[in-house]
Specification:
Largest sheet: 8 strands, antiparallel
Number of domains: 4
Bound molecules: flavin-adenine dinucleotide
Structural class: alpha+beta
CATH topology of the largest domain: Uridine Diphospho-n-acetylenolpyruvylglucosamine Reductase, domain 3
Length: 472
């Protein structure tokens, strides 16, 4: 129980500016952006510095008070929402830990505090002629700590890897309040267990990440963007191979979209439209990019289109001739989730399968869904280059939204069974949080769950760090 003595003591560590107890001010921080998870808490603490956060965690550990870390609150699995099911938890927000990032252009590194947004890091890197490799639709709000804790993906993983691959080391506070510091920017360090890597993707269950040293890349100075009509996911996969070969492996984006996902977008989102004339069942948004100015990316894109047309891998395509046209392609792609919200109920699956299994997975899962849930509209889209699909299923037209959403768990089970049967993962980039806990237990081998629980127990014997996340 968090009592008034605890609140008074914990507030001392952060002062008035870092203490929030008024329920009206707390509301946005305990509400997930889709309103799927709404929690409550008597106390949000927002430390400004690592040592303040360490004092909070040490105190909470001594008094066995659970803590839920939160960054930008853009997570999609409920992991950063305190007080679900009336749990007594302190919300520990990193929103005040956001000093200007330090960029070292010659080392190709950037060090940021946990509460820095991805957009701020992108800008800071770009000002020094470097590229921050992660890009995702929530980048204006999601934070350095959040992307590290969830090992976020996004549209550039095909070229620059996941957040895990982009991190050289972190500073973090362990559940007993001790601080680990692996911020030196070492690229090689084979001295036992990689602690930074263990906390990355742990969703706040093993400690609070306070600073991160990211790897940077040369900026993309030449870029060609195209919107292509493809007959099938199988053809899209062949197109991906061809693109990598023809572009000298300079593909930096390769997104697959089902036509029906785009129909909703064109219908509901102003400023979106079909860039091509004829209707195709599938589309690909592709970018080829180079760090050299005046590189031959346009020629490579042209060569790709000619080869792909000749091989029947695409039926039509448009190459962006202006910044506005490129923006249109991206607006089409990035508005899909928003459009689905406006169209009605949508049951989400963020899954991945090995590349070679994608086409058969889409086919068999779509078929199984239509058999078990007649009338549903299946709208897969996602980062094909990483084998990652947002396999979203829309309610039947004019169906009751609540009744449809009541089938969430049953539908998840069907889709996840298909994922596992095709050698995939039930969470490609959003994590487990509280949303997928039961499915994690059901689908992950028991030996792996046992090992994960042993790690949790070793790091957090009092079970104070995000205790309802991942597993109970
Ligand atoms: C429109 C939209 C598009 C999105 N697109 C993508 C996408 O393409 N790819 C993708 O991967 N995700 C995507 N997401 C999901 C989300 O943006 C990511 O999961 C992001 O990494 C969350 O960052 P955050 O700062 O908002 O974290 P939060 O939502 O605040 O927290 C997420 C989790 O991390 C933990 N956490 C947060 N900060 C810390 C910290 N400092 N130390 C320890 N634990 C911490 C929390 O406890 C929670 O479990 C999208 C979300 C939205 C709303």
């Amino acid at each position: 129980m968090i009592n008034s003595d605890h609140i008074a003591k914990l507030s001392e560590f952060v002062g008035e500016k870092g203490t929030t107890t008024d329920p009206r001010n707390l509301e946005p921080f305990v509400t997930e952006w889709r309103d799927k998870f709404i929690g409550q808490t008597p106390l949000m603490l927002s430390p400004k510095k690592t040592d303040e956060a360490a004092k909070i965690i040490r105190y909470c550990n001594q008094h066995k008070i659970p803590i839920v870390p939160q960054g930008g609150n853009t997570g999609l699995v409920g992991g950063g929402i305190a007080g679900l099911d009336n749990a007594q938890e302190v919300l520990l927000s990193t929103r005040r830990m956001k000093a200007e990032p330090t960029v070292n252009p010659s080392d190709f590194t950037l060090v940021a505090e946990a509460g820095c947004t991805v957009a701020t890091m992108q800008d800071a890197a770009s000002e020094q002629g470097r590229l921050f490799g992660l890009s995702l639709a929530s980048e204006g709000s999601c934070t350095a700590g959040g992307i590290a804790a969830t090992n976020a993906g996004g549209v550039h993983v095909i070229r620059y890897g996941t957040t895990r691959a982009m991190i050289l080391g972190i500073e973090a506070i362990l559940p007993d309040g001790t601080i680990i510091d692996e911020l030196s920017g070492l690229r090689k360090n084979n001295t036992g267990y990689p602690l930074s890597q263990l906390l990355i993707g742990a969703e706040g269950t093993l400690g609070l990440i306070t600073k991160i040293c990211f790897r940077l890349f040369p900026q993309e100075l030449s870029r060609a963007t195209a919107w292509l009509a493809v007959p099938s996911p199988q053809d899209a996969l062949k197109l991906l191979s061809l693109s990598r070969e023809v572009s000298e492996d300079q593909v930096s984006v390769f997104e697959l979209m089902d036509r029906s996902a785009l129909e909703f977008t064109y219908q509901h989102i102003p400023g979106t439209r079909d860039p091509l004339g004829d209707i195709s069942p599938w589309y690909v948004l592709i970018e080829i990019a180079s760090s050299a100015e005046n590189s031959a990316v346009d020629d490579r894109m042209q060569a790709l289109l000619e080869n792909a047309l000749a091989d029947g891998l695409i039926t039509d395509g448009a190459v962006a001739q202006s910044l506005d046209q490129r923006k249109l392609f991206w607006r089409n792609r990035e508005s899909i989730s928003e459009a689905q919200k406006l169209e009605g109920g949508s049951i989400k699956h963020d899954v991945s399968v090995p590349l070679g299994q994608i086409a058969v997975f889409i086919q068999s899962t779509t078929q199984a869904l239509h058999t078990s849930f007649p009338g549903v509209r299946v709208t897969p889209f996602g980062h094909l280059g990483d084998g990652n699909l947002h396999f979203n299923v829309m309610q039947p037209k004019d169906a009751d939204k609540t009744a449809f959403l009541d089938q969430w768990e049953a539908m998840n089970r069907l889709v996840h069974d298909e994922v596992i049967a095709h050698g995939g993962s039930i969470s490609a980039e959003h994590g487990i949080g509280v949303l997928k806990k039961a499915e994690l237990l059901r689908t992950k081998p028991a030996a792996e769950i046992t090992a994960m629980k042993a790690i949790k127990k070793a790091f957090d014997p009092n079970h104070i760090m995000n205790p309802r996340c991942l597993f109970d």
